Amino acid sequence: MRNRLARIFKHGDNRTVMLAVDHGYFQGPTTKLENPKRTIEPLLPYADSIMLTRGVLRNCVDASNDIPIVLRVSGGVSILKQDLSNEDITTSIEEALRLNASALALSIFVGEEHEHRTLVNLARLVDEAERYGVPVLAVTAVGREMARDARYLALACRIAAELGARIVKTYYCENFDRVVDSCPVPLVIAGGKKVPEYEALKLTYNAIKNGAAGVDMGRNIWQSDHPVAMIRAVRAIVHDNATADDAWQLFNELKTNENREVLINQ
Ligand code: R5P
């Protein structure tokens, strides 16, 4: 267990840049993730771990790559249905071990129609995974009607930790330090819908400043026109204590160099 967690939090600062590319499990070919291999490959050198389903892992990530795998093991829904909380466990523990997962990820939907099932699924998954020393990351999924405020997110994160999650993924919100303070395990934040790069960097900075252990970020990285520059800028905040302005400057420098290289190669 400690070794697997150390692979995810591997820089000795107890922080991590987790690259989330699991969106297809209910969204299908999401914008800029239509061809996962093409999106993922250039980003891998800058991610501490990658969060994805077994299908994308098998087909789009070379097995020789040593990146720690955070395997999404819940699903069973699509964006075509209203009841997104109707998830179940979709991958067995044996399969996860065979795929050499460093952690398993499952969504819980607190306050949603299928709250009970997703919470019991989390507890069952924790029971199975702990037997083999595999940490479980709980994704505090927020339904369409739920507010993303500190009161609600603290409730969802605390329940996830109480049920045995070793890492919790949530959203940044005002008074985020209250969410961190009441959750006894590391919190990583999702980026959410794509926003301008500077805003996403500010969000990352504020989350880290208020106690997040890192990011589990997807769209704000790979939906950027400069995904490599973006993940490197996010990384600078998480691991090098860069401010949002430092990271923004880095992003622009890397973007300019990238554009120059494209021109030279034309
Ligand atoms: C839900 O689709 C997934 O768990 C994502 O991995 C999560 O929402 C993080 O990705 P993003 O930063 O795009 O919100």
What does this molecule look like?
The protein has 266 residues and is an alpha/beta fold. It is built from 12 helices and 10 strands. It has helices at 2-8, 24-27, 36-40, 54-60, 93-98, 115-131, 150-162, 176-181, 197-209, 219-222, 227-240, 244-265; strands at residues 16-20, 49-52, 69-72, 74-75, 88-89, 103-108, 136-140, 167-170, 187-189, 214-217. The strands form 2 sheets. Strands 1-2-3-6-7-8-9-10 form an 8-stranded parallel barrel, surrounded by 6 helices. Helix 9 packs antiparallel against helix 12 and helix 11 (227-240) runs antiparallel to helix 12 (244-265). The longest helix has 22 residues, at 244-265. The chain starts with a helix and ends with a helix. The mean pLDDT is 95. Bound molecules: ribose-5-phosphate. The site of ribose-5-phosphate has 13 residues, from strand 10 and helix 10.
Tell me, rounded to a whole number, the average pLDDT. Answer: 95
* Poorly predicted parts: none
Please bin the fraction of helical residues.
Answer: 40-55%
Question: How is the biggest beta sheet arranged?
Answer: 8 strands, parallel, barrel
Tell how many strands the DSSP assignment holds.
10
Return the string of H and E elements: HEHHEHEEEHEHEHEHEHEHHH
Please state the overall shape, judged from the principal axes of the Cα atoms: globular
**Structural class per helix/strand content?**
alpha/beta
Strand content: 5-15%
What is the radius of gyration?
18 Å
Topology:
Blueprint: H1 2-8, E1 16-20, H2 24-27, H3 36-40, E2 49-52, H4 54-60, E3 69-72, E4 74-75, E5 88-89, H5 93-98, E6 103-108, H6 115-131, E7 136-140, H7 150-162, E8 167-170, H8 176-181, E9 187-189, H9 197-209, E10 214-217, H10 219-222, H11 227-240, H12 244-265
Parallel strand pairs: 1-2, 1-10, 2-3, 3-6, 6-7, 7-8, 8-9, 9-10
Antiparallel strand pairs: 4-5
Helix pairs in contact: 9-11, 9-12, 11-12
